[in-house]
Design goal:
The structure is a homodimer of 243-residue chains. By secondary structure, chain A is an alpha/beta fold. The first copy, chain A, has one domain: Rossmann fold (3-Layer(aba) Sandwich), CATH 3.40.50.880. Chain A is built from 8 helices and 12 strands. In chain A, the strands form 3 sheets. Chain A has an 8-stranded mixed β-sheet, with helices on both faces. A two-stranded antiparallel ribbon of chain A has the order 3-4. In chain A, helix 4 links the parallel strand 6 and strand 7. In chain A, helix 7 packs antiparallel against helix 8. The first copy, chain A, is globular and about 40 Å long. In chain A, 48% of the residues are buried. Strand 4 of chain A pairs antiparallel with strand 4 of chain B.
């Protein structure tokens, strides 16, 4: 009976091998479509990520591919796992990459949207914080929206950096990281390689600003038009190098 | 060898039964958490759905559950399949329900975000259009963002209804549906049970307006504050009953 049992064992293992692959893994094989030569913008997601702080910058950055004569962006999501992540508002999202299991493409722009536990338990996630620290050290631009600033600060955002966060959490950021220069009543702050945003609907401002910084006002205006935004940097409270 | 072969066959089938269940199905068993007595807001998604037109109203509606003394909303996504849907910007989303395979909860508010092919191939999706028609007939409020208006019009939005869509597609909506009264240079239009929005970042206006309509200005102001929006209906170009 050895032969047949082995045969069925092989069939069993084959069935498992075929059926146990996760849809997220199979989806990942064909996605994201990373076009060589583009800037890679990675969005860190986890359970409790806030929809708007993820999608506002993701939309602006993704739409750069429809603008001519610029080095556009590839956008993709990264999480600790490639199992489905559930956003704060209940959207079930399949991450494109898992930083604990995949070899990731080089990341030019690291985006940390806010998540429900960015003021508490997420800051205890040593693997996540270590990944953010390593990635931020190599990225050209590091961006946080809303309370993503707490993750960046925990992961070693430079002392004395000017930054901001969700308006109601300004005081908490100052308490937890007294060396930071936390600005308030402001949409976003660009200091060094870091862009921090108040988040929420203001997340569009920070994303459009970065595109204007990288590609010029005409491209930023076109990206804003696509999202029915009347974009005027001068009317947005912000701090940037030279201010 | 019948016995052992049957045993291994059973083991094989058991392994398949355990491993072949889709994460989206398993996720659906525990999600969404539909709290009885709330208004059910369903968001129709499909490949090519635009992130912001989905997440802006989803966020405003979801956050109603944190406001006291109102009949808050349950939010969930519905698609033709419970397999992963890929948004226009590349977000991989697991729908909460599939209208072809699930019995859906009663839908009080139907939201049709825009998607890449809402001016062409999506309008040929007979099953989707039929589901929208049936659902819209029973819903208390039917909302479209951006080009979702083309889906609502194809699914039988009443003739002579005032409505709007993405600014660049106003002319096309008028050509395709000449009986509609398409308003331009406007953020949203509320006529009868229908609220249609220009979409993009303006999608927040339509969602906040509906919350102000249902719950009053104080609640709308609180929801806007959570998304760092300075909300003032009077400063938003719109048309509503009585205007």
């Amino acid at each position: 009976m050895k032969g047949p049992r082995s045969l069925f064992s092989v069939l069993t293992l084959l069935a498992l091998a075929i059926c146990c692959k996760h849809p997220d893994k199979s989806a990942r094989r064909s996605w994201p479509d990373l076009v060589p030569g583009r800037l890679n913008a990675a969005f860190l997601i986890m359970d409790g990520v806030y929809n708007t702080e993820l999608t506002a910058p993701m939309d602006i950055f993704h739409h750069t591919r429809f603008r001519d004569s610029i080095r556009a962006m590839n956008v993709f999501t990264v999480a600790g796992t490639r199992q489905p992540v559930r956003s704060f508002e209940g959207l079930q999202i399949l991450p494109d990459f898992g930083y604990l299991e995949d070899s990731l493409p080089p990341i030019d722009i690291l985006v940390v949207p806010s998540a429900e536990h960015h003021l508490d338990s997420d800051l205890q996630d040593a693997a996540m914080i270590a990944w953010v620290r390593r990635t931020a050290q190599q990225a050209r631009i590091v961006m946080s929206l809303c309370d993503g600033a707490f993750v960046l600060a925990t992961a070693g955002m430079p002392d004395s950096l000017r930054c901001t966060t969700f308006p109601d959490d300004i005081g908490r950021l100052r308490e937890m990281f007294p060396a930071l220069r936390v600005l308030e009543n402001i949409s976003f702050v660009h200091d060094g390689r870091y862009i921090t945003s108040a988040g929420g609907d203001r997340s569009f401002d920070a994303a459009l600003y970065l595109c204007q910084h990288l590609y010029g006002k005409k491209v930023a205006d076109q990206l804003a038009h696509g999202l029915v935004i009347g974009w005027d940097l001068d009317s947005v409270p912000h701090w940037k190098p030279g201010d």
